[in-house]
Amino acid sequence: MKELRDIKESIDSKALQSVDTKYDLVLPGLTEDVVREISKLKKEPDWMLDIRLKSLEIFQKSRDPRFGPSIDEIDYDKVLAYAKPGAKKSVDWDDVPDEIKEAFDRLGIPEAERKVLAGVEAQFDSEVIYSHVKKMLSKLGVIFTDMESAVKEYPDIVRKHFLKLIPPNDHKFAALHGALWSGGSFLYVPKGVEVPLPLQSFFMVNTPSVGQFEHTIIILEEGAKATYIEGCTAPQYGVHNLHAGVVEVYVGKNAHLKYITIQNWSKSVFNMESKRAVVEDDGVMEWISASFGSYKSMVYPSVILKGKSSSSNILSITLVGKDQHIDSGTKVYHIGAGTKSTVVSKGISMGGGWSTFRALVRVSKGAKNSRSTVECDSIMLDDESRSDTIPVIEVQESNSDFGHEARVGRISDEEIFYLMSRGFTEFEAKALIIRGIMEPVIEELPLEYTVELNRLISMELESSLG
Question: In percent, how much of the chain has pLDDT > 70?
Fold first, then answer.
């Protein structure tokens, strides 16, 4: 591997000032040598290297999306493909090095762990450096580990599911992910097992110019039930970071997964994450997300309602401020008969930010008695901000029931005046209304996360309205 001094000319000099030399850094750029080096460092089996090389070939032939925010500023030749902190994985928080512990301290991981939540996976740049799973879960047959360990310890399961829901030829960033993926979580819940407490993963980008490409696979067998929470963050840098993670979820018959995301990427991050779930008979999939950060985002969690009477519930809120463009939404595919879906989106734009919501609901022939409701509320707090709603409903089965409702506007002067007449300042009045809009997501979170989410809301409001 090249030493840090050998790549100084390839990376913005400002970024290098804060790169910790304790990191192993793969050369920037997307070449076969870089991909092979990553696979070699991880001591991967040949079949995984083959996936990486095929993905790289697809990426090199792919082009940027023809919709959404401009991503011309991404310079793939300067993206650090892999950054490994100088720390070994640990099963005890006390063994984690102080500089990494302090970084995660800002996320509240120690507090959550002390409150005996079920398990934690923490990823610092490209590697999972802290892992803790309760013995109770192991006794239940639950597997919760980092993806690198899963590749080696459960190769048959991983190979069967890896990049099957989101193949490399799905889009450019899926191919990029397939070539450079590193880190992520693997969760397997056996038949009939209900995980009693939430499982958590935290992802942090802490090195300028580094790309983070974590891969998460969640498998719930028949009758299983679990809640999974991921938190994402990155400090502010003078150069751009790229996040292109992939999440693949398999919900078995009569199983139920609630997947919660709290995303607080800094305004130097391009967030190009892909998430997709497939649900079997009578299964339930819930996506719940709160997005506060990133420079530009293109994220569209999707659900394939394959089994009869399967259902999905998708709830998201976005808070977009100055210099941000978050292009988000969801996709739901009704394939099985009697399937149901609900999509609720709450978007808030302020300080000149731009929020775009896209919804695709597709009903296949034979998906009789299917139902779907899509609701989108977007609010702008000033004349400079922008909010767009782009719904698409494709119905190939006449025996179905679908509806869409969208509202776009500003907080009324009457509401602000009423609250100010009760003693609130204008800032407090706007903040109170915004918190009310976000309440549907906040009430879905465990107590520890409501505190963190409220803190993030306050920080965003102060930076844009204060």
Answer: 73
